[in-house]
Write a structure and sequence with these properties.
Helices cover about 35% and strands about 25% of the residues. By secondary structure, it is α/β, with parallel strands linked by helices. It has 2 domains: about 120 residues, 3-Layer(aba) Sandwich (Rossmann fold), CATH 3.40.50.720; about 190 residues, Dihydrodipicolinate Reductase, domain 2, CATH 3.30.360.10. A hairpin with a 2-residue loop joins strand 12 and strand 13. Helix 1 crosses helix 10, helix 4 runs parallel beside helix 5 and helix 5 runs antiparallel to helix 11. It starts with 14 loop residues before the first strand and ends with a strand. Belongs to the Gfo/Idh/MocA family. It comes from Carex littledalei. This is Oxidoreductase family, NAD-binding Rossmann fold. One of its GO terms (molecular function) is nucleotide binding.
């Protein structure tokens, strides 16, 4: 197993990122880097299909004087000043460039959805494992301290109890320009549409709540909206487990913004309204209620939900990069092999996403995992 070898004394050096592609979301990544403690991480290279586009991006991100501008993408992968690659390219290009990055010994941080199907995800993960590099997808909400606190309460047998029902919704009302021109509605770039872009969050949060226990059955709803090219603009699905747990999801480019997760158990309920992008950067909240009953004569509840507020010193995207850096340095320091946790969560999320898509393609028939 080969491991990328940065310059001498690398555990004390910042992780040097190369950005492979100049998508708008890459600006958020650059901001996250800028918020980290000095010496944690830097952006050493920016690559695009054209140097002009790379220069425009570097100027708008205030990196023109500090990052090398390279074209084509292969030039970044050959650059020895790059330890890790951030990939915000269209989903159809992920497998090509993630595999190529891993082959060059670059650690891989990739935007979601990871790929168009689980077979592509497995090619990426195989390349990362073969070359001893870390893989992580860009699901930033998993790195917020609120998520850890919600995990603690869900796992507490006295708070939520046995899981019975999970519901998620992730949506926004797209503009006419978005629906006409955005890469997320183009079949050759992001053919999964809303299912890939927003459904990744829905499925990921459902699986997270179950500790990544896969459902047995997945059924898409016939309430489906497609554009003229057959790309999904809105869809819903239900997931079923053998123990009686049911989960529902809705993802859409056609309805008001939502980022809901509700987890209902035998003893309590947990509810969060802003899972993927918190209302505030410095703190996030959720509600939990346990042991409630209807009051006498059904005139109210015996308890009100408790509001739990979790503060954070950094926004979740910066915490994601910090976690990535920490794990890369453990590999550099030869204290551990690359953490496979993130690979496993991405692979399972893609498996369920594929099952939803397959159910849609098979006239909403059940798909068994």
């Amino acid at each position: 197993m080969s491991v990328s070898e940065p310059e001498a004394d690398h555990p004390q050096n910042p992780i040097r990122f190369g950005i492979l592609g100049c998508a708008r979301i890459a600006h958020k990544f650059c901001r996250a880097i800028s918020l980290l403690p000095s010496g944690t991480a830097t952006i050493s290279c920016i690559s695009s299909r054209s140097l002009d586009k790379a220069r425009q991006f570097a100027t708008s991100a205030r990196l023109l004087s500090s990052a090398k501008l390279l074209s084509p993408y292969e030039a970044l992968l050959e650059d020895t000043s790059v330890d890790a690659v951030y990939i915000p390219l269209p989903t159809s290009q992920h497998v090509t460039w993630a595999v190529a990055s891993a082959a060059k010994g670059k650690h891989v941080l990739i935007e979601k959805p990871v790929a168009l199907c689980v077979e592509e995800v497995e090619r990426i993960l195989e390349a990362c494992e073969k070359n001893g590099v870390l893989f992580m997808d860009g699901s930033t909400w998993q790195h917020h301290p609120r998520t850890a606190e919600m995990r603690r309460l869900i796992d507490d047998p006295n708070r939520i109890g046995q899981l019975r029902l999970i519901h998620t919704s992730c949506s926004f009302l797209a503009t006419p320009e978005f629906l006409q021109n955005d890469i997320r509605v183009k079949p050759d770039l992001d053919s999964l549409g809303a299912l890939g872009d927003l459904g990744w969050y829905c499925i990921g949060s459902i699986l997270w709540a179950t500790n990544y226990n896969l459902p047995r059955t997945v059924v898409a709803s016939p309430c489906l909206s497609l554009n003229s090219s057959g790309v999904i603009l809105s869809c819903s699905a239900s997931l079923y487990w053998d123990n009686g747990l049911v989960a529902t999801l809705n993802c859409s480019f056609l309805s008001h913004v939502s980022m809901d997760l509700s987890v209902h158990g035998s003893k309590g309920t947990l509810l969060v309204r802003d899972l993927t992008i918190p209302y505030r950067e410095d703190a996030a909240l959720f509600e939990v209620i346990s042991g409630a009953h209807f009051a006498e004569l059904h005139i109210g509840w015996t308890k009100k939900p408790e509001e739990v507020v979790v503060e954070t010193p950094l926004p979740q995207e910066a915490l994601m990069v910090l976690e990535f850096v920490k794990e890369v340095k453990l590999v550099w320091d030869k204290k551990s092999e690359p953490n496979l946790k993130w690979a496993d969560t991405s692979r399972k999320t893609q498996m369920v996403l594929d099952a939803v898509k397959r159910s849609i393609d098979q006239n909403f028939e059940p798909v068994y995992l």
